[in-house]
Amino acid sequence: MVHGRPADGRISSIVPADHQAAYTEATAYITRINSIDAWRSDDFDLDYVLMRARLAPPGRRLKVLREGTVTLARDRRAGVVDTLAVTSALSWLEVGSSLGSRRFFLLEGEWYEGGAAYVAESRATVAALFPPAPSVSLPAWLDGESENTYNNRVADEERPGWLCLDTKNVTNPLRPRDQVEICDLLTPDGTLVLVKRAGGSGPLSHLFSQARVAVELLQESARVRAEFTAKVTRLSGGRCVLPDDFTPRRIVLAMLLKNRENLTPESVFGFSQITLAQTAKALAARGVAVEVIGIPEGSVDTVPLSMCRVGIGAGVPG
């Protein structure tokens, strides 16, 4: 049973779709699985959940996860919390598993068989997110380059008029001590670009969750809109001025998947196709279009000479 194993890439965590708002507000996670005692943490603790599952006898592990709870709470004062939501521990897990030639996915506490109508519909939705002529393109992501370094290079050197907003967060109105990242890059026409390099479904789930939270906050919070538009004006030196009532009309999800030569609908990790389809449908209902593009992988040897910062007095061996 896959739930009895340590996290190995086939099991990852995802924020339950019905509890995105509570997730942005929560400051404490109280997990209770097959025990009267509870584990308290600052975020969802996948390793703890899987450890508790391994303690249950084979055949009962799925049951204890389904009956186990993860309570999202907000600290009010020492020893006192406000409960925001009580969720099933199983709803936080994404799992891929095979039985012979049949492929199954666990998502939001329910099992789906690959090739069934639901998965076929999800794949069709995902395929539509890959336009034959992408509206934007991104340069190669160099070996050893951090996400922040890459995003700054794109805005500073590769895409004139773009603005890097990686780590330039806004205050979470539901959780003032925390910050929310709206996007990594902003294009001149107001498109939000979210960037991620991933080796499995876990980071992509967080990327999709970020997209939904960013749109919801910009649409629902005047405070977030005011802070975001002011930050864009300030960081761009006045080159980019968004309207005071700005809300995005399009989001681009830019991904580099490890061990995948090219990004195609088929190359997106199994259950990431399902969560991506859910994200696109949720954002479409809010009037926001989603586009997916791939980021090529590169090495320093492929960087054009114009990008190299070589000083005139650089030493030459010999």
Write the layout of secondary structure elements.
Layout: E1 11-13, H1 20-25, E2 28-32, E3 39-41, H2 46-55, H3 61-67, E4 69-77, E5 80-88, E6 93-99, E7 102-107, E8 110-113, H4 117-127, E9 141-142, H5 147-158, E10 163-164, E11 170-171, E12 179-180, E13 185-186, E14 192-198, H6 201-220, H7 222-235, E15 250-257, H8 270-285, E16 289-294, E17 297-298
Parallel strand pairs: 9-17, 14-15, 15-16
Antiparallel strand pairs: 1-6, 2-3, 2-4, 4-5, 6-7, 7-8, 10-13, 11-12, 13-14
Helix pairs in contact: 2-3, 4-8, 6-7, 6-8
Kindly report the average pLDDT value: 84
Q: How many structural domains can be distinguished in the coordinates? A: 2
**Taking Cα atoms only, what radius of gyration do you get, to the nearest Å?**
21 Å
Helix fraction bin: 25-40%
β-sheet strand percentage: 15-25%
Query: Could you list the spans in which at least 5 consecutive residues all have pLDDT below 50?
Result: 304-318
Number of strands: 17
Query: End-to-end span in angstroms?
Result: 62 Å
How many separate helices?
A: 8
Shape: globular
Across the major sheet, the strand order is 10-13-14-15-16
Class derived from helix and strand content: alpha+beta
Mind describing the biggest β-sheet?
Answer: 5 strands, mixed
H/E order of the elements? EHEEHHEEEEEHEHEEEEEHHEHEE
The gist of it:
The chain is an alpha+beta fold and 318 residues long.
Write a structural description.
The strands form five sheets. A five-stranded mixed β-sheet has the order 10-13-14-15-16, with helices on both faces. It is globular, with a radius of gyration of 21 Å. Strand 7 and strand 8 (110-113) form a beta hairpin. With 318 residues, it is of the alpha+beta class. The longest helix is centred in the middle third of the chain and has 20 residues, at 201-220. It has eight helices and 17 strands. The model is unreliable at 304-318 (pLDDT under 50). It has two domains: 2-114, no CATH class; 124-301, no CATH class. The termini are far apart.
